[in-house]
Design goal:
Blueprint (H helix, E strand, L loop, with lengths): L1 H29 L10 H11 L2 H5 L10 H20 L1 H8 L2 H17 L5 H20 L5 H4 L2 H17 L2 H26 L3 H21 L2 H7 L1 H6 L3
Helix pairs in contact: 1-2, 2-4, 4-5, 4-6, 6-7, 7-9, 9-10, 10-11
Length: 240
Amino acid sequence: MTRTFKLITGTGLILLGGLLLAYNLAGAALGWADLALWRLWPLGIAGVGLLFVLPLVLAPRERGQAALLIPSLLLLCVAGLSAAGQVFGPGLVWAHFWPQVILTLALALGLLALYWRLIWLGLPALVLGLLGAALQLTALTGWWSLWAVLWAVVPLGVGLGLLGIGLVRHLGGLRVAGGLITLVTALVAGGLGSLLTGQWSVLNLTLAVGLMAAGLALALWGRPAAWLRSSPAVMDDMPH
Protein backbone atom coordinates (compact mmCIF):
# COMPACT_ATOMS: atom_id res chain seq x y z
CA MET A 1 0.00 0.00 0.00
CA THR A 2 2.86 2.38 0.89
CA ARG A 3 4.62 1.63 -2.38
CA THR A 4 1.43 2.26 -4.36
CA PHE A 5 0.82 5.52 -2.52
CA LYS A 6 4.35 6.67 -3.23
CA LEU A 7 4.00 5.77 -6.88
CA ILE A 8 0.70 7.63 -7.22
CA THR A 9 2.00 10.68 -5.35
CA GLY A 10 5.24 10.76 -7.30
CA THR A 11 3.46 10.42 -10.63
CA GLY A 12 1.05 13.19 -9.70
CA LEU A 13 3.87 15.54 -8.69
CA ILE A 14 5.77 14.83 -11.91
CA LEU A 15 2.68 15.55 -14.01
CA LEU A 16 1.87 18.70 -12.05
CA GLY A 17 5.43 19.96 -12.36
CA GLY A 18 5.51 19.19 -16.08
CA LEU A 19 2.26 21.02 -16.68
CA LEU A 20 3.46 24.01 -14.66
CA LEU A 21 6.70 24.08 -16.65
CA ALA A 22 4.78 23.88 -19.93
CA TYR A 23 2.54 26.73 -18.77
CA ASN A 24 5.50 28.97 -17.99
CA LEU A 25 7.30 28.12 -21.23
CA ALA A 26 4.16 28.74 -23.29
CA GLY A 27 3.53 32.00 -21.46
CA ALA A 28 7.07 33.19 -22.12
CA ALA A 29 6.88 32.20 -25.78
CA LEU A 30 3.52 33.90 -26.31
CA GLY A 31 4.44 36.97 -24.30
CA TRP A 32 1.79 36.63 -21.63
CA ALA A 33 2.21 39.42 -19.12
CA ASP A 34 0.03 37.80 -16.46
CA LEU A 35 1.17 34.33 -15.40
CA ALA A 36 -0.86 34.25 -12.19
CA LEU A 37 -1.13 30.82 -10.63
CA TRP A 38 -4.89 31.12 -10.26
CA ARG A 39 -5.12 30.59 -14.01
CA LEU A 40 -3.84 27.06 -13.47
CA TRP A 41 -7.03 25.76 -11.87
CA PRO A 42 -7.81 23.59 -14.95
CA LEU A 43 -4.67 21.61 -14.07
CA GLY A 44 -6.38 20.45 -10.90
CA ILE A 45 -9.23 18.99 -12.96
CA ALA A 46 -6.71 17.35 -15.28
CA GLY A 47 -4.86 15.90 -12.31
CA VAL A 48 -8.03 14.35 -10.92
CA GLY A 49 -8.79 12.94 -14.37
CA LEU A 50 -5.34 11.34 -14.57
CA LEU A 51 -5.74 9.85 -11.10
CA PHE A 52 -8.76 7.91 -12.37
CA VAL A 53 -6.48 6.13 -14.84
CA LEU A 54 -3.90 5.04 -12.27
CA PRO A 55 -5.89 2.07 -10.90
CA LEU A 56 -6.12 0.72 -14.44
CA VAL A 57 -2.37 1.16 -14.91
CA LEU A 58 -1.46 -0.36 -11.56
CA ALA A 59 -3.86 -3.29 -11.85
CA PRO A 60 -4.42 -3.95 -15.56
CA ARG A 61 -5.89 -7.38 -14.91
CA GLU A 62 -8.85 -5.85 -13.07
CA ARG A 63 -10.86 -5.31 -16.23
CA GLY A 64 -13.77 -3.76 -14.36
CA GLN A 65 -11.63 -0.75 -13.52
CA ALA A 66 -11.61 0.20 -17.19
CA ALA A 67 -14.94 1.93 -16.53
CA LEU A 68 -12.86 4.67 -14.88
CA LEU A 69 -11.92 5.75 -18.42
CA ILE A 70 -15.29 7.49 -18.68
CA PRO A 71 -14.84 10.01 -15.83
CA SER A 72 -11.12 10.28 -16.62
CA LEU A 73 -11.58 11.29 -20.25
CA LEU A 74 -14.52 13.57 -19.42
CA LEU A 75 -12.49 15.41 -16.78
CA LEU A 76 -9.54 15.73 -19.15
CA CYS A 77 -11.84 17.15 -21.82
CA VAL A 78 -13.31 19.69 -19.41
CA ALA A 79 -9.80 20.60 -18.23
CA GLY A 80 -8.63 21.09 -21.83
CA LEU A 81 -11.58 23.31 -22.71
CA SER A 82 -11.16 25.28 -19.50
CA ALA A 83 -7.44 25.75 -20.17
CA ALA A 84 -8.20 26.94 -23.70
CA GLY A 85 -10.76 29.32 -22.19
CA GLN A 86 -8.01 30.90 -20.10
CA VAL A 87 -6.22 31.82 -23.32
CA PHE A 88 -9.00 32.60 -25.80
CA GLY A 89 -11.82 33.44 -23.43
CA PRO A 90 -14.23 30.99 -21.79
CA GLY A 91 -17.26 32.34 -23.64
CA LEU A 92 -15.67 31.77 -27.04
CA VAL A 93 -14.35 28.30 -26.28
CA TRP A 94 -17.40 26.87 -24.54
CA ALA A 95 -19.83 28.39 -27.04
CA HIS A 96 -18.10 26.71 -29.98
CA PHE A 97 -16.56 23.54 -28.57
CA TRP A 98 -18.90 22.25 -25.86
CA PRO A 99 -19.90 19.28 -28.11
CA GLN A 100 -16.41 17.92 -27.49
CA VAL A 101 -17.75 16.62 -24.18
CA ILE A 102 -20.24 14.41 -26.07
CA LEU A 103 -17.54 13.27 -28.49
CA THR A 104 -15.28 12.43 -25.55
CA LEU A 105 -18.02 10.30 -23.99
CA ALA A 106 -18.44 8.52 -27.33
CA LEU A 107 -14.68 7.89 -27.44
CA ALA A 108 -14.69 6.51 -23.91
CA LEU A 109 -17.54 4.12 -24.69
CA GLY A 110 -15.80 3.03 -27.89
CA LEU A 111 -12.58 2.29 -26.00
CA LEU A 112 -14.52 0.32 -23.40
CA ALA A 113 -16.22 -1.66 -26.15
CA LEU A 114 -12.82 -2.62 -27.54
CA TYR A 115 -11.26 -3.33 -24.15
CA TRP A 116 -14.17 -5.37 -22.83
CA ARG A 117 -14.96 -6.83 -26.27
CA LEU A 118 -18.60 -5.84 -25.86
CA ILE A 119 -19.82 -5.13 -29.35
CA TRP A 120 -23.17 -3.82 -28.08
CA LEU A 121 -21.38 -1.02 -26.26
CA GLY A 122 -20.29 0.25 -29.66
CA LEU A 123 -23.92 1.12 -30.47
CA PRO A 124 -24.26 4.05 -28.02
CA ALA A 125 -20.69 5.05 -28.87
CA LEU A 126 -21.60 5.35 -32.55
CA VAL A 127 -24.85 7.22 -31.85
CA LEU A 128 -23.15 9.68 -29.50
CA GLY A 129 -20.27 10.11 -31.93
CA LEU A 130 -22.57 11.07 -34.81
CA LEU A 131 -24.65 13.29 -32.52
CA GLY A 132 -21.55 15.04 -31.17
CA ALA A 133 -20.16 15.56 -34.67
CA ALA A 134 -23.44 17.10 -35.83
CA LEU A 135 -23.58 19.37 -32.78
CA GLN A 136 -19.95 20.39 -33.30
CA LEU A 137 -20.69 21.31 -36.91
CA THR A 138 -23.61 23.53 -35.97
CA ALA A 139 -21.79 25.02 -32.98
CA LEU A 140 -18.92 26.11 -35.24
CA THR A 141 -21.02 27.35 -38.14
CA GLY A 142 -24.09 28.62 -36.29
CA TRP A 143 -26.34 26.87 -38.81
CA TRP A 144 -28.75 25.52 -36.22
CA SER A 145 -31.50 25.38 -38.83
CA LEU A 146 -29.71 22.30 -40.18
CA TRP A 147 -31.23 20.34 -37.32
CA ALA A 148 -34.36 20.06 -39.40
CA VAL A 149 -32.34 17.30 -41.11
CA LEU A 150 -29.47 16.56 -38.72
CA TRP A 151 -31.81 14.94 -36.18
CA ALA A 152 -31.58 11.94 -38.48
CA VAL A 153 -28.06 11.17 -37.22
CA VAL A 154 -29.56 9.48 -34.14
CA PRO A 155 -31.71 6.85 -35.93
CA LEU A 156 -29.01 6.61 -38.60
CA GLY A 157 -26.46 5.71 -35.92
CA VAL A 158 -28.84 3.11 -34.50
CA GLY A 159 -29.39 1.59 -37.94
CA LEU A 160 -25.70 1.51 -38.82
CA GLY A 161 -24.87 0.06 -35.41
CA LEU A 162 -27.41 -2.73 -35.72
CA LEU A 163 -26.29 -3.41 -39.27
CA GLY A 164 -22.65 -3.64 -38.20
CA ILE A 165 -23.43 -5.93 -35.25
CA GLY A 166 -25.53 -8.13 -37.51
CA LEU A 167 -22.70 -8.44 -40.00
CA VAL A 168 -20.10 -9.22 -37.34
CA ARG A 169 -22.26 -11.69 -35.42
CA HIS A 170 -23.92 -13.15 -38.52
CA LEU A 171 -27.41 -12.30 -37.23
CA GLY A 172 -29.83 -11.98 -40.14
CA GLY A 173 -32.55 -10.26 -38.12
CA LEU A 174 -30.24 -7.47 -37.02
CA ARG A 175 -28.95 -7.01 -40.55
CA VAL A 176 -32.51 -6.59 -41.84
CA ALA A 177 -33.52 -4.24 -39.00
CA GLY A 178 -30.37 -2.16 -39.29
CA GLY A 179 -30.60 -1.95 -43.06
CA LEU A 180 -34.26 -0.91 -42.97
CA ILE A 181 -33.68 1.74 -40.30
CA THR A 182 -30.69 3.13 -42.20
CA LEU A 183 -32.53 3.17 -45.54
CA VAL A 184 -35.72 4.75 -44.18
CA THR A 185 -33.77 7.35 -42.22
CA ALA A 186 -31.68 8.26 -45.26
CA LEU A 187 -34.81 8.62 -47.42
CA VAL A 188 -36.62 10.76 -44.83
CA ALA A 189 -33.57 12.95 -44.28
CA GLY A 190 -33.07 13.29 -48.04
CA GLY A 191 -36.72 14.23 -48.50
CA LEU A 192 -36.58 16.86 -45.78
CA GLY A 193 -33.35 18.23 -47.19
CA SER A 194 -34.89 18.47 -50.63
CA LEU A 195 -38.02 20.13 -49.23
CA LEU A 196 -36.05 22.75 -47.31
CA THR A 197 -33.55 23.54 -50.07
CA GLY A 198 -35.72 22.96 -53.12
CA GLN A 199 -32.99 20.72 -54.56
CA TRP A 200 -34.94 17.57 -55.37
CA SER A 201 -31.84 16.02 -56.86
CA VAL A 202 -30.78 15.33 -53.27
CA LEU A 203 -33.77 13.04 -52.80
CA ASN A 204 -33.16 11.43 -56.18
CA LEU A 205 -29.53 10.76 -55.29
CA THR A 206 -30.49 9.35 -51.88
CA LEU A 207 -33.14 7.14 -53.43
CA ALA A 208 -30.74 5.88 -56.08
CA VAL A 209 -28.04 5.01 -53.55
CA GLY A 210 -30.64 3.41 -51.27
CA LEU A 211 -32.01 1.23 -54.04
CA MET A 212 -28.51 0.16 -55.04
CA ALA A 213 -27.64 -0.69 -51.43
CA ALA A 214 -30.89 -2.64 -51.00
CA GLY A 215 -30.26 -4.53 -54.23
CA LEU A 216 -26.71 -5.37 -53.21
CA ALA A 217 -27.91 -6.60 -49.81
CA LEU A 218 -30.56 -8.81 -51.44
CA ALA A 219 -28.08 -10.16 -53.97
CA LEU A 220 -25.65 -11.19 -51.25
CA TRP A 221 -28.31 -12.32 -48.80
CA GLY A 222 -28.57 -15.84 -50.10
CA ARG A 223 -24.82 -16.45 -49.88
CA PRO A 224 -24.38 -17.73 -53.46
CA ALA A 225 -21.13 -19.47 -52.60
CA ALA A 226 -22.86 -21.65 -50.01
CA TRP A 227 -25.71 -22.32 -52.48
CA LEU A 228 -23.24 -23.42 -55.13
CA ARG A 229 -21.57 -25.81 -52.73
CA SER A 230 -24.88 -27.40 -51.74
CA SER A 231 -26.56 -27.53 -55.17
CA PRO A 232 -26.66 -31.08 -56.60
CA ALA A 233 -26.78 -29.85 -60.19
CA VAL A 234 -23.67 -27.81 -59.75
CA MET A 235 -21.93 -30.57 -57.87
CA ASP A 236 -22.59 -32.96 -60.78
CA ASP A 237 -21.07 -30.52 -63.25
CA MET A 238 -17.94 -29.96 -61.18
CA PRO A 239 -14.89 -31.99 -62.26
CA HIS A 240 -13.90 -34.84 -59.92
